[in-house]
Specification:
- By secondary structure, the chain is α+β, with helices and mostly antiparallel strands.
- Helices cover about 50% and strands about 20% of the residues.
- Strands 1, 2, 3, 4, 5, 8 and 9 form a 7-stranded mixed beta sheet that branches. The chain has a two-stranded antiparallel ribbon with strand order 6-7.
- About 5% of the residues have low confidence.
């Protein structure tokens, strides 16, 4: 009899746990429909393509991307929690991951006139699942764009830390209340910022980040000062060091100083056209193609061309579109 009672108690406990999980899932879905899906659907339903069709098309695409990102986060969280996701960890370029993430959020950033900056010294190789690592950074950038003032700057930085690469996203928003800070990686955390008159609301993005980073053996964290912005970071294991670094550069520049570049001679202009002409047809997002060109042997390059090359590398690493465009325009076209 006691055995039967014990078995029944265990079964009731399992049923209770399953019901609790179902209730949590119901609450999660309700919040998802109200918080994430409704806003994006309102954009789609209320779009009027007869008025400024290009802008409306951009808004529709952004809404579609937001919905897809939310669905991917939800599926990802469920996969990490039930153990069905298996990582495909390979050596991936830190720079390429950041540039790909920048490309995926560039429309959201442009809509609020927000500048994205990437500051680092070395292009480390990460040991990670490339798609998931990129989604981690996209979620942090999306969060920063939503919580930073229009017309401001969002900085991404990378540093080596005990065999891991720490990638930090810094915004210029109102900051996070101390009581809310430890909870931001939980699902649908929300709360007010005392004294700021603002509120912070988080969906599934940061919760996905925490689970994905921990699956790689890394950690997540955040620091914030109210009224001065926040820094949210994650770590991923390092595979090796990539050697694309500016030659002859003593320290990393924050901004490409184009005024230091000398006037090229006709011979140097011809050399640029012959060796780096394809750069005129390459976007700053195509970091692999840029890297392939810049790593070609250049034993005949003059000191002025070496300085130009280092400036191109710096502009690419910092995602400085205007400097990159200016430097590429210095390459004569086939008619010049």
């Amino acid at each position: 009899m006691n055995y039967e009672i014990n078995v029944t108690a265990e079964e009731l406990l399992q049923i209770h746990e399953k019901l609790s999980d179902l209730l949590k899932f119901k609450d999660l879905m309700t919040t998802f429909l109200d918080h994430d899906l409704k806003n994006a659907l309102n954009t789609l339903v209320n779009a009027d393509v007869s008025v400024d069709p290009m802008h409306q098309l951009s808004e529709i695409r952004n809404a579609g991307r937001r919905m897809l990102n939310v669905v991917n986060n939800m599926v990802g969280i469920m996969g990490f929690e039930n153990g069905s996701i298996v990582l495909n960890a390979t050596a991936i370029s830190q720079n390429e991951m950041v540039m790909n993430a920048f490309r995926r959020v560039k429309m959201q950033a442009a809509a609020r006139n927000i500048t994205l900056s990437f500051n680092h010294e070395i292009n480390y190789m990460l040991l990670a699942d490339g798609d998931i690592a990129e989604r981690i950074l996209v979620n942090l950038l999306d969060n920063a764009i939503r919580h930073t003032p229009a017309g401001s700057l969002i900085e991404v930085s990378a540093e080596l830390l005990d065999g891991f690469i720490k990638i930090t996203v810094k915004d210029r928003g109102d900051g996070i209340a101390p009581g809310l800070l430890p909870l931001i990686f939980e699902k649908y955390t929300h709360g007010d910022n005392p004294g700021q008159g603002t509120s912070r609301r988080y969906g599934l993005g940061l919760a996905f980040c925490k689970l994905a980073v921990e699956k790689h053996g890394g950690t997540t964290g955040a620091i914030s000062e109210q009224g001065k912005g926040s820094e949210i970071w994650f770590t991923l294991p390092m595979a090796s060091v990539d050697v694309i670094q500016p030659e002859h550069q003593t320290k990393p520049a924050v901004i490409c100083d184009l005024q230091d570049l000398p006037e090229f001679t006709e011979a140097e202009r011809s050399w640029l056209r012959e060796h780096y002409g394809p750069l005129r047809r390459i976007s700053i997002h195509q970091i692999s193609d840029i890297k392939d060109l810049l790593e070609m042997p250049d034993s005949g390059a003059s000191p002025a061309i070496c300085r130009w090359k280092n400036a191109v590398i710096t502009a690419t690493n910092q995602y400085n579109v205007s400097s990159f465009s200016h430097l590429v325009e210095l390459i004569p076209d086939n008619d010049g």
